[in-house]
Amino acid sequence: MADTIAALSTAPAKSGVAVIRMSGDKSLEIAKRVFRPARNRDWVPRMMTYGNLFNRDGIAIDSILAVWFKGPESYTGEDIVELHCHGSLAVLNSALSALYFFGARPARPGEFTKRAFMNGRLDLSQAEAVGDLIDAVTEEAAVNAAAQIRGALSRKLGQIYDKLTDLLAHFQAVVDYPDEDIESFGIENAINILEDAAKELNKMTEGYKRGKVLREGIECAIIGRPNVGKSSLLNMLAGDERAIVTPIAGTTRDIIEAYAKVGGVTLKLRDTAGIRRTDDSIEEIGVERAIKAARDASLVLAVIDGSQPLSDEDRDIMKYAVEKKAILLINKSDKPRNESLDKELSEWRDKFAAVLNISAKTGEGIEDLETAVNELYSMGELRPDGTLITNARQEGICKTAELLLGEAVNDLRSGYPPDMVMYDVEQAMTGIGEVLGKNTPADIIDRIFANFCVGK
Ligand SMILES: Nc1nc2c(ncn2[C@@H]2O[C@H](COP(=O)(O)OP(=O)(O)OP(=O)(O)O)[C@@H](O)[C@H]2O)c(=O)[nH]1
Ligand SMILES: [Mg+2]
Fold this sequence. Notes:
This protein is α/β, with parallel strands linked by helices. It folds into 3 domains: 5-107, Probable tRNA modification gtpase trme, domain 1 (Gyrase A, domain 2, 2-Layer Sandwich), CATH 3.30.1360; 130-212 and 391-450, Four Helix Bundle (Hemerythrin (Met), subunit A), CATH 1.20.120; 217-381, P-loop containing nucleotide triphosphate hydrolases (Rossmann fold), CATH 3.40.50. Helices cover 47% and strands 18% of the residues. A 7-stranded mixed sheet has the order 3-4-5-6-2-1-7. A 6-stranded mixed sheet has the order 9-10-8-11-12-13, with helices on both faces. Strand 4 and strand 5 form a beta hairpin. Helix 6 packs antiparallel against helix 15 and helix 14 packs antiparallel against helix 15. Bound molecules: guanosine-5'-triphosphate and magnesium ion. Magnesium ion binds at residues 230-231, 243, 251-252, 271.
């Protein structure tokens, strides 16, 4: 019998409505101690009931909605009760303390989802996707995680697993009945199956990089000398006034981050301090951070002021930028262009993925930037379908499985007997099984759920 756990499932902050969740055999019994439906109505599974919430001393503390999900038809597979209270911290604290008083215990991080996994309601990759969905900062990441929760990744891996199981059964038959003609078993056929499986796994691990992009956005540093309009650009792209903009050079001292969707791609923008040689120690730290931000980024937007001649500092900045994938933005296109600039830039053009004229003030040229970013990351064809692998553990396992299957193919081609090859295939299957949560070691499972928030 599972003990009954309770936790606040919404954020621990003042809010309009907050949800406390309980799971376990005693959920309903405990709920009845703290909640009484209006007009003495009965609890009906999956039906929201209006009524009063009481603290442990029986004093009414809120008027709320409660709902009971009778196991096994619930998220965890156990009896669940949710209390939809007003989001007052006082109410939530005394409600929780009443639940603990009447026999529930505080849930550990991710314990609801862990129970869902343990009770077979979700496999491990689906359970992990729940964490991904909560962590999602981009819409694409949410779409991918939601598809994973519905089982897209599990199905794909499950198919591979099943095909390998069939193959192993054939291998086993050959080992058990060595007199059988090995050719009738079809080595070529086996090789095809293994190669197909390896290819599928490869597609999924190749997707990992894109998956990371989906999850976190592309790290993008905006660098340039002071006053060229870096913060204005960030504000323009992010659609709000995140960074302070002033005509004073050296306004931005530390890094400011914002997410922005540019050309269908989510960029994690980092506005940096203007890079110049300086005696001001605070500014100097900012400058160092700017250079580091550029080194850490996968895309650099180098900004110069198009109304001014190119300076040595601009050249330094462009040098940092082109160490990476970089776009040169010639800003302030609403002002008259400096006459010598284009000539001075001629040697630089090829080094950038794109050189664009923009105005962070009027928005001119932003569409060109969107096109350039879209082309760089060819996201046009990217449709997150839930089969993108999005975490390092899954990626590592699938990569290893792919290599093992590749070895099995080589061994078969070199004429090794199937029983020697079987071992590699079994290892690959163990890995795939671990992604799905079949025989996954307990400590790994614990670690996965420990990263979840309490109440999920
Ligand atoms: N005319 C014009 N002015 C701009 C444009 N972009 C920025 N500015 C102005 O340039 C000045 C500096 O802009 P910021 O965005 O603060 O520049 P920054 O590069 O972040 O400067 P630091 O933080 O000091 O390094 C402000 O007065 C902006 O209004 C533009 O496209 N056209
Ligand atoms: Mg700035």
